[in-house]
Amino acid sequence: MIYDVAIVGTGPAGLAAALTLKLHNKEIIWFGSAELSDKVGKSEKIANYPGVPMVSGADLNAAFAAQAKEMELEPKNARVTNIADLGDKFMVLADNEMYEARALLLATGTAAAKGMEGEAEMLGRGVSYCATCDGFLYKGKTVAVYCTDERMEHDIKYLEEICGKVYIYTNFGYEQASESSEVLASPLKKLSGGLKCDSAELFDGTKLDVDGVFILRPAIAPSTLFPGLETDGAHIKVSRNQETNYKGCFAAGDCTGRPYQIAKAVGEGNVAAHAILEYLG
Ligand SMILES: Cc1cc2nc3c(=O)[nH]c(=O)nc-3n(C[C@H](O)[C@H](O)[C@H](O)COP(=O)(O)OP(=O)(O)OC[C@H]3O[C@@H](n4cnc5c(N)ncnc54)[C@H](O)[C@@H]3O)c2cc1C
Known about the structure:
Elements: E1 2-8, H1 12-23, E2 28-32, H2 38-42, H3 57-70, E3 76-77, E4 80-85, E5 90-94, E6 97-106, H4 119-122, E7 127-128, H5 131-134, E8 142-147, H6 153-162, E9 165-170, E10 182-183, E11 188-193, E12 197-202, E13 207-209, E14 212-216, H7 222-225, E15 231-232, E16 235-236, E17 249-251, H8 262-280
Parallel strand pairs: 1-2, 1-6, 2-3, 6-17, 7-14, 8-9, 8-14, 9-10
Antiparallel strand pairs: 4-5, 5-6, 11-12, 12-13, 15-16
Bound molecules: flavin-adenine dinucleotide (FAD).
Flavin-adenine dinucleotide binds near residues 11, 37, 48 and 263.
């Protein structure tokens, strides 16, 4: 099936766009998480979102979720790891499944984490963002895992099941599940190798010989997610209509730049939805 629109991101920007597109009966695939936005959820008090006086982030997220449910919008709980432009449509890879859509909206929030040294160069050459997709390539082999999202713990466990040795760094106190695994105290700093990544250096100077490295973060830099996407630093370059340099691909919310605010994200999501409707004709 080819969807009309694929939306990546379940924060306020993605939701605002999804609501408008749904009202116009578009077939949408909406990637993100059932909790919608971590960032909104973490805000203690929000005082500047019109119509909802002094609300906790958790309550606002719950209201967003209720509105999505009412409109029969159900997020696909999957992490998008790669996007490609196929000319008249886009290919979106999420949790090892491929989806196609005529138009695309990136509403991924900010990718706070700066990539580690060598990460971009080695991506696809022994460095992966998706254990479910690429884990089987490292059956019985040695890999290093860098994980900053507790929700991806199951991915580490999966790698521990199938790999020979797994070096694990997390920022949330992970307990190894296999005797042959090793939890690292120091984060990964630099990845290197020739045709394939074969070395991971830690901040404490230790060098690990590896066959592969899995980087499991909640957000992936837009230019890595969608190679060729024009960015300005960490932000996606957009026009007043939220268009990116790829025809049919739009972006909205924190991923397009400051100010990082819910009202701005919602506004841009709405503008993008209208531009997408015009694009789809
Ligand atoms: C502590 C805190 C307090 C704040 N207080 C306020 C405030 O008082 N007022 C205010 O206006 N703003 C506030 N903000 C900012 C506000 O939360 C953000 O501006 C807003 O959430 C941005 O919305 P967004 O939709 O662009 O991105 P986000 O809300 O970050 O949502 C992005 C979504 O995309 C998903 N995603 C990202 N990459 C992928 C991928 N590859 N595959 C699938 N899904 C993906 C994420 O999981 C997330 O669900 C606060 C933020 C924080 C952290």
